From TrEMBL, chain A:
<feature type="transmembrane region" description="Helical">
    <location>
        <begin position="106"/>
        <end position="127"/>
    </location>
</feature>
<feature type="transmembrane region" description="Helical">
    <location>
        <begin position="133"/>
        <end position="152"/>
    </location>
</feature>
<feature type="transmembrane region" description="Helical">
    <location>
        <begin position="230"/>
        <end position="248"/>
    </location>
</feature>
<comment type="similarity">
    <text>Belongs to the binding-protein-dependent transport system permease family.</text>
</comment>
<feature type="transmembrane region" description="Helical">
    <location>
        <begin position="74"/>
        <end position="94"/>
    </location>
</feature>
<keyword id="KW-0813">Transport</keyword>
<keyword id="KW-1133">Transmembrane helix</keyword>
<keyword id="KW-1003">Cell membrane</keyword>
<dbReference type="InterPro" id="IPR035906">
    <property type="entry name" value="MetI-like_sf"/>
</dbReference>
UniProtKB/TrEMBL annotation, chain B:
<feature type="transmembrane region" description="Helical">
    <location>
        <begin position="25"/>
        <end position="45"/>
    </location>
</feature>
<feature type="transmembrane region" description="Helical">
    <location>
        <begin position="371"/>
        <end position="391"/>
    </location>
</feature>
<feature type="transmembrane region" description="Helical">
    <location>
        <begin position="342"/>
        <end position="365"/>
    </location>
</feature>
<feature type="transmembrane region" description="Helical">
    <location>
        <begin position="279"/>
        <end position="300"/>
    </location>
</feature>
<keyword id="KW-1133">Transmembrane helix</keyword>
<protein>
    <recommendedName>
        <fullName>NnrS family protein</fullName>
    </recommendedName>
</protein>
<feature type="transmembrane region" description="Helical">
    <location>
        <begin position="182"/>
        <end position="201"/>
    </location>
</feature>
<dbReference type="InterPro" id="IPR010266">
    <property type="entry name" value="NnrS"/>
</dbReference>
<keyword id="KW-0812">Transmembrane</keyword>
């Protein structure tokens, strides 16, 4: 409850601190406008035309439907990766041997491009939900696994010894010692994975689905409709920005507050 | 007060008016604010004739408020601030008198430009350039000699104002349809000047207020935020000069508005912000941010009002900055403690309302003429109040027995 109240009361100051980001984004839009004036609307429509197309998509309910579908796929893949990646990473972190063994496997997973996984997924799952979900999962898994592994490996042994000496109850060890430390590694990994899941799901849909934002992008591309193409890109980026800056970033700050107190 | 003004008119170096550079110029600023607005209101309401300057009535209104009213305040501010910031001697009374004469001559030359034709336009341009050039020449060696050279931005803004004046007069001579664009660039230069000057003034004022309230927190005018804002103002101003009315300048105006709001993060130091001096200075940024947003929305959407936004910058941000600087420095450099009387917050509120009413005219307020007149009357009232309360201080000797521009003596 305290956490929730602190989060709510900090919202105005947090939102006001976002004006710098708004200024940067407006400068980006100005550059976009300048490039559009130079190259012409056929190559790059101006932001006004793009936002007009986006508004049409939003007003007609098309954007919400497709975004929801893509969101569901990306979130399913992400959730699977969060559960499996976090647990596997935590377990691997408990044993030095397991950590040593896991490292090359993670390198292999991280080194395999998502497009390669996508081709495999298309062969395994065909043109259904399984393809984007699996591709998002496999792209996020190593990122989260490494975060969890590092969180466990970097636990302060002195603090562990002290907890053992004072016979700290297990739930206190979890909430006051292991939890905050591991979460401070896991949270950034989850946020990174969220961006990855979102992008990879759109990419998978583009090549392997008949619906979702990626499929809508593919249709707009085939019709050479530049404003609608950019509107879909804008919708994807805006959704990600909203989720990250309105939900995850404040939560991350709250979870990592103990670092500031310690500093 | 009339007796004091009559005494001041006698060119004796001993008169208190010449004790400090800001004294005559702050009086000239407030007088110009009223004397330049009354004919404009009479012109708007009853069609009374204005001096037939080249460029038309709008050029007269904009030029005189930027280079009559605002430049006088800048002259007064820099003639006092440069010696203070650089730890050098005050400027001599004779220098101040010459600059004041130059300012008056420049006014006359511009006003008579419509009758005298090209020679008087050239003369007006040369007099304005001489005035700005003389101030820059006086300030440059001191600002340059400062080991850290942290106040050179004042010099660059003066040079930019000189370029704008030259551009304006060249276009007047050439008879082009766009001389006003140089005055719009001047607004951008003044905004940069306000941001630079306010970063110096606010550090002292807000930290003093924090210390008075017993708060341990420090206010810091952070350079990165200020620099982002200055870059945005410059980009918008450049776009307005080269691509006036474009959507590109609309986005840049919105970016500038957002950059003003992010600068205001520095000011969120708790309840102290609601006290008289910090709040008055904070209102400058409120007007500036809203002004740029209003202009941006006016350019990009059917919402907002472009001229309204411009007046939030000029009447609001610039007017409040002038009133704030003249009220703070006007007393401090006469050896008086800050003004705690009620007229000052009322005057600031009046100016804020004047800018708001002018911005809403023709957009939110449908009766445009009434709104214009109300805004103009409020503006005149504010600077008449300033003259009523500050002229007696600026025209009399210091009570602390000190000379020149020294600040209040520490107890």
């Amino acid at each position: 409850m305290v956490l929730l109240w602190r989060w709510v009361s900090g919202i105005p100051a947090y939102l006001w601190s976002g004006w710098g980001a708004v200024a940067s984004l407006c400068l980006l839009l100005a550059v976009w406008e300048a490039v559009s004036i130079t190259l012409g609307p056929l190559i790059l429509p101006d932001p006004g035309a793009t936002f007009g197309a986006l508004w049409q998509l939003l007003a007609g309910g098309v954007a919400a439907r497709e975004l929801l579908l893509t969101g569901q796929r990306a979130m399913t893949g992400l959730l699977l990766a969060m559960v499996l990646g976090s647990s596997a990473g935590l377990l691997a972190g408990l044993s030095m041997t397991a950590a040593m063994m896991a490292r090359p496997l993670v390198t292999v997973l991280l080194g395999t491009p998502p497009i390669a996984w996508l081709v495999l997924a298309m062969l395994w799952f065909g043109a259904n939900d399984g393809t984007p979900v699996f591709t998002a999962f496999i792209a996020c898994f190593p990122v989260i696994f490494v975060g969890a592994l590092q969180g466990t490996r970097t636990l302060d042994h002195h603090l562990k010894d002290m907890a053992a000496m004072f016979r700290l109850p297990w739930h206190m060890r979890l909430t006051d010692l292991y939890g905050p430390h591991v979460l401070s590694y896991l949270f950034p990994a989850w946020i990174n994975a969220l961006g990855t899941a979102w992008k990879v799901a759109v990419m998978a849909e583009l090549l392997a689905s008949a619906d979702g934002v990626g499929a809508a992008l593919a249709i707009a591309r085939s019709q050479l409709d530049m404003p609608v193409t950019l509107a879909w890109v804008g919708a994807v980026v805006l959704t990600l920005l909203l989720v990250e800056y309105l939900l995850l970033e404040p939560l991350k700050r709250e979870v990592e507050r103990w670092r500031e107190v310690q500093a | 007060m009339l007796t004091m003004l009559r005494e001041a008119a006698r060119p004796t170096a001993a008169h208190p008016l010449w004790l400090c550079g800001m004294r005559p110029f702050f009086i000239a600023t407030a007088a110009a604010a009223v004397l330049l607005m009354v004919p404009w209101l009479a012109f708007l309401a009853a069609g009374w004739p204005l001096p037939p300057v080249a460029g038309g009535p709008f050029a007269w209104h904009a030029h005189e408020l930027l280079y009559g009213f605002a430049l006088a305040s800048v002259l007064g501010f820099l003639l006092t601030a440069v010696p203070e910031f650089t730890g050098t001697a005050d400027f001599a009374p004779v220098t101040v008198r010459r600059l004041l004469l130059l300012w008056l001559a420049a006014r006359m030359a511009f006003w008579l430009g419509g009758w005298g034709g090209a020679p008087l336009i050239v003369l007006s341009g040369l007099l304005h350039l001489a005035l700005i050039g003389a101030l820059a020449a006086l300030a440059a060696p001191r600002l340059w000699a400062d080991p850290q050279r942290q106040h050179l931005s004042f010099l660059w803004t003066l040079l930019a104002l000189g370029i704008c004046e030259a551009g304006f007069h060249v276009e007047l001579l050439a008879g082009t349809a766009t001389p006003l664009r140089w005055l719009y660039v001047s607004v951008g230069v003044y905004m940069v000047l306000v941001v630079v000057a306010l970063s110096r003034i606010s550090m002292r004022i807000v930290n003093q207020a924090l210390s008075d309230a017993g708060q341990a927190t420090d206010y810091l005018a952070r350079p990165p935020r200020r620099n982002l804002l200055i870059v945005c103002i410059m980009l918008y101003t450049g776009a307005e000069l080269l691509l006036p009315g474009s959507r590109l300048s609309g986005w840049l105006a919105l970016a500038t508005g957002a950059a003003v709001f992010q600068l205001m993060n520095d000011w969120h130091v708790g309840r102290v912000l609601l006290t008289r001096w910090p709040l008055m200075l904070y209102a400058i940024y409120v007007c500036m941010g809203l002004g740029y947003v209003c202009m941006g929305l006016g350019l990009l959407t059917p919402l907002g009002s472009f001229p309204g936004g411009r007046h939030l910058l000029t009447a609001g941000a610039l007017g409040l900055a002038m009133l704030g600087a003249m009220s703070i420095a006007g007393r401090a450099h006469c050896g008086r403690t800050p003004d705690e009387r009620a007229w000052l917050p009322l005057a600031a509120l009046g100016l804020f309302l004047a800018a708001g009413v002018r911005a809403a005219a023709g957009w939110l307020l449908t009766d445009t003429m009434e709104a214009w007149l109300l805004a103009g009357v409020l503006w005149c009232g504010v600077f008449a109040l300033y003259l009523r309360h500050l002229a007696p201080v600026l025209l009399t000797r210091r009570r602390d027995g000190r000379h020149g521009c020294h600040g209040v003596q520490e107890a």
